[in-house]
Amino acid sequence: MTRRFVFFTLAAGLLALSLGGTESRAGSATLDQLIGGATLTEGDLTFSNFSYTPTPTGSPPIASAVDVTASLVGGLVQLEFDGGFHALANTTVDYLIKYEVTAAPGDSITDAHLFGNPLAGSGGMAAATVTETINALPVFGIDSATPSASVTFAPQSTIFVTKDILMVGGTTGTSSLSFVQQSYSTTAIPEPASMALLGIGLSGLFTLRRFFKRTSVA
Question: Looking at per-residue confidence, does 74 or 203 come out higher?
Answer without folding.
Answer: 74
